[in-house]
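BUG-536 | component: ligand-complex export | severity: low

The export step for guanosine-5',3'-tetraphosphate jobs runs without errors, but we want the raw record kept on the ticket for reference. Input record follows.
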Amino acid sequence: MAVLQDEVARRRTFAIISHPDAGKTTLTEKLLLFGGAIQLAGAVKAKGDARRNATSDWMKVERERGISVTSSVMTYDYSGCTFNLLDTPGHGDFSEDTYRTLTAVDSAVMVIDAAKGIEAQTLKLFEVCRLRDVPIMTFVNKMDREARETFEILDEIEQTLALDVSPASWPIGMGRQFKGCYDLINDQFIPLHNDAKGELPRDGLKVTGVDDPALQDVLDSTEIEALEEGASMATELCPPFDLQGYREGTLTPVYFGSALNNFGVRELLNGLAASAPSPRPQAAVIGDDATEIAPEAKKVSGFVFKIQANMDPKHRDRIAFMRLASGHFKKGMKLSHLRSGKQLTMHNPQLFLAQDRATAEEAYAGDIIGIPNHGNLRIGDALTEGENIAFTGIPSFAPELLQSVRPTDPMKAKHLGKALFQLAEEGAARVFKRVIGSDWIVGVVGALQFEVLADRIRTEYEIPVTFEQVNLMTARWLQADDPALLKKIVEENRGDIAEDHNEIPVFLARNAWHLDRAQDDYKGVSFLKTIEQVGT
Ligand code: G4P
């Protein structure tokens, strides 16, 4: 038991949220570098060679593609902690996947471009974190370029996000004049070495405070003056770091750095090791009772938060990503899949490093495991050592954009249905089948997703399709305590009703008035914007 508790306590499962181009990929790479490059952390053992290859391949993929990290989970050890970094797909557009990934983390790092401040996507992702009170550390990146004034950045974070900000470091200069940072937590000066080639920065200069004469050897008098002024204003205007405030999601410690120059990354990692929360209890329902599953609970349990298809183009497999909510998982163990009532043997659980896979031997609450399957696992599904747990809080969002889809070859209609069903199960889109006629309606939260879907249906299922505009504003899941009432609304509005892939009825609203009227007409029916996917 003690071992289980210790293993849980040293886990840090987190994601990076940012706007494209702020430096998420670069920071990810540098976090891995400081964490001894990519490796399968302690508990999850892989063969040595596989590890090394994984590292270099991942870097290669990164370089070649020049896009955000494609792997879903990266695990590394640092300072006695095991970090699980979950990727939030970082394209200009984003999908439910991104939202759901944030349901599987215990904290987040928000990367901000020092010249741009809070940008649109950062804000959206932040709001998702806030809904779940996910604690956030902020990394203000690209200090080696012309940046905004330090106070202006802090003020923007505070105002835009309504968060207390507490600088953990204080930058000295910016752009070409950027000299490094003063570590306000440990009282040391960390000089910038212009070395993007991978040499890790040397230790900082330990001092007694910003007025320590030792600083005169490394900074000129103007810089020292600016530092003294800045640090004293920071102490006056910003609250000191407060662990509870951070853990509750009301305060963010702010680190300044330059990921490209390996600068500020170690301090951020130290901050995560020291303060980021270990796995939190997960909200669940047992029978009819709401409860929480403690990570230290002995029996293994976990929930699927993401499905990825065809990671290996040669095999049409799917991987279900399960976050362990409790217990000590071992390869080969049997887990009950509650929705189907079947026992699944974990023959081949995996951990993913970009394109490479390594077999997970064992893992603990907070870790993520990839489970290869042929479509029997779905988002929201629970796997447990026998207990009848349903995890809550894994949301499905009402799509904001709806289009109909048809195959260019009408003979392929049936195949298309199958493809759409699989994509819906994977969580790539919402798919609704009208109860009248044979139309499929596809709903997404970002416009780019239609193109991505068309491309996937064509390449993965060999069905060329066209998406067409439909006169629909939104789709709402229907729910009612009284089954007769639910039946009534479905029967009386068949033209506006469809079913999702779980056969839950949805109302297809043409416009706001249409939706309002239906809500008025059927009091007692809920028109839900989000539903929780409960895998039982
Ligand atoms: P993203 O994943 O958030 O989209 O950002 P990414 O890390 O890909 O970084 C976006 C661009 O910003 C990259 O330049 C990257 O090199 C640069 N960058 C990241 N961190 C820093 C930093 O601390 N300082 C400076 N000056 N630049 C930084 P790029 O030209 O788009 O790509 P590349 O050719 O340099 O790879």
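Assignee comment: Attached the raw record above. The first helix runs from residue 2 to 9.
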